[in-house]
Amino acid sequence: MSISSEHKPLGKQVTGSLRTLSPIVELNVGGEMYTTTLSTLKKHPGSKLAEMFTGQPKLRTDSEGRFFIDRPGTYFKYILEYLRSNQVPTQCIQDVYKEALFYDIEPLIKQLEDSPEIFGELIARKQFLARVPNYSENIELMIRIARAEAVASRRSSVIVCVVRTEEDAARCQDALNSLDVDKKSVVKFGPWKAVPSISDLLDCIQMDVEAKGYKISFQPYVAEKGFRFKSHDFFYKFLFTWW
């Protein structure tokens, strides 16, 4: 005996399509479950989040028929709270900012960028580092040198030369030549035209290398020979610890 079409069970894709017509929406965001309204999700029509629920559903569903978004679910609660009440989060600012960028919620992005944490990172620190020639490339070079020297070792070190002005760069040239003769690799940062000091740049280097998952520390580099001035004025040894 055949089953008539009106009594056939709904498949998950059909269930998902029907749910877009309901004012209540169930979500699975990276394993975290949420229930909200369609109007909340579409509060900012130009956002990527609103696009996901405009017209035919553009998302897959999980085994329970909930719409699935493959993003960190922990931070979606802050996104949802902002959509519901315009409350800007005060916790996990950096992570929520990444999610706001992904969902393209422009008002939230702008408000988060005005927070001290994001403002300091985007406007102050990154603008400074943009004035340090080849900063990102030098960070990668440091890591390559350290990894090359890590074979059968617990630690490896990288010599870094930091010069803020053209005059300092000229003063360091003899020392750089001496290290080159000794076949020691040196990563040179600077010069730059900005207020932050050498110690500020050293902190940035450590911060950005650690952000890539490495354990690192630094100290003044004590030269063995060939330096006509105190090496710790411009030369530092960054120590990578592997285990």
UniProtKB/TrEMBL annotation:
Domain BTB: 23-120
GO BP of this protein: protein homooligomerization
Gene3D superfamilies named among the record's database cross-references: Potassium Channel Kv1.1, Chain A (3.30.710.10)
Pfam families, A to Z: BTB_2 (PF02214), KCTD_C (PF25611)
SMART domains noted in UniProt: BTB
Descriptive protein name: KCD14 protein
Species this chain originates from: Smithornis capensis
Lineage, uppermost ranks: Eukaryota, Metazoa, Chordata, Craniata, Vertebrata
Gene name, Swiss-Prot/TrEMBL: Kctd14
